[in-house]
Design goal:
Elements: E1 2-7, H1 14-17, E2 19-23, E3 30-31, E4 36-39, E5 44-46, E6 50-51, E7 56-60, H2 61-64, E8 71-78, E9 84-93, E10 100-101, E11 112-113, E12 116-117, H3 120-155
Antiparallel strand pairs: 1-2, 1-10, 2-7, 3-6, 4-5, 4-8, 8-9, 11-12
């Protein structure tokens, strides 16, 4: 389960449009009995029901009674054992109508066995990034040499 997004400052009255959206990113249905959401001011709402795999759940502030801050807010999701399952937040002022969205950066972890990488996507992506970095470095180096040579011609001096 993740907090997918929330809207702290909707266009118009906040109480009519604020919401929190959850997403069951697992392959199994999740029983929400005992799960809770809370915000930085410690307001809580207990979840209930079942959310199926790959399904979203949208809760409006009219149901949760959690009034989201327009200047800095964090939403916490805890499971039935009280363990933090996810959190999503922002700092600064929320623009009217701007949705705060979960943006995950996934980095492939290498899986090793007997000194070999088992995850071919990891080695491929790392290799591709290194080749791109080296290529860009060479291009920037050549541009720098060209600029220096042109300056030498214009100024009629040797720079190196």
């Amino acid at each position: 389960m993740i907090i997918k997004e929330f809207l702290p400052n909707p266009v118009g009255p906040d109480k009519d449009g604020e919401y929190i959206k959850f997403f069951n990113d697992s392959d199994k249905a999740v029983n929400l009995a005992g799960w809770k959401i809370s915000d930085v001011s410690k307001k809580e709402f207990s979840l209930s029901g079942i959310i199926n795999s790959k399904e979203e759940l949208v809760l409006f502030s009219t149901k949760t009674k959690i009034s989201l801050n327009n200047t800095g807010e964090t939403i916490f999701l805890t499971d039935s054992k009280g363990v933090l399952a996810d959190k999503l937040g922002y700092t600064g002022a929320a623009e009217e109508g701007k949705v705060i969205i979960k943006q995950e950066i996934v980095i492939a972890d290498p899986e090793f066995q007997n000194g070999q990488v088992l995850n071919p996507n990891f080695s491929y992506s790392v290799g591709r990034v290194l080749v791109l970095d080296i290529f860009l470095g060479i291009i920037l180096g050549l541009v720098a040499v060209y600029v220096i040579l042109q300056l030498e011609k214009k100024l009629d001096i040797k720079l190196f």
